[in-house]
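Friendly challenge for the regulars: who can give me the structure tokens for this chain first? No prize, just bragging rights.
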Amino acid sequence: MELAFCVICDPSAPRFDVDLDEQGKINWFASDGRNIPEELRAMQAGLFPNQTRRGLRLFCEFFPLFERFVDSLGIEMITAEPLTYDNAIRYEKCGFDYLRGLRLMREIDREFQPGGLYFKRLDGSSMFRMPGMERTVRGRSWAIHDNIMGQPWDGVQIYKMIGVDAGINTFPGREQEVW
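First reply, four minutes later:
Bragging rights claimed.
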């Protein structure tokens, strides 16, 4: 079973047009242009990249129910493609492992450590690259969205065997944050 585009947002929360470019055209998750003013507003409001509204923080409650449903169908594995760094970390917390991307996730953690390439690029050259952003999932995710890696976030695929927690944690030193 593939879990794709699971969005649990607060429909009454303010909307941020991060899914549109500055001319109002759909930007396909910022792969076809960005809306920097809206992204800045979203970031300052505590959202993650590509979030148009604040979430209801129900994913951790939803996922075990989804897993039970998938199990009831006799399916043994759930797959997903996290579209952002923060989604990959969120899925790790739910017990997912990597089909592709574990090496990348470990590289990201290493390069955000003091002395690492991404750590050095948190130089204040944009609001998405402020020193200190390496300490949180949200900060790293915005920096990655801002192309701090020099390449787009892509190609990460994950899976979860029903009833099995893979125990993956590619950001063990993160500061705790509400998300």
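Residues 13-54 form one domain. The helical segments are 36-44, 59-72, 85-93, 102-111, 117-121, 137-145. Your move, everyone else.
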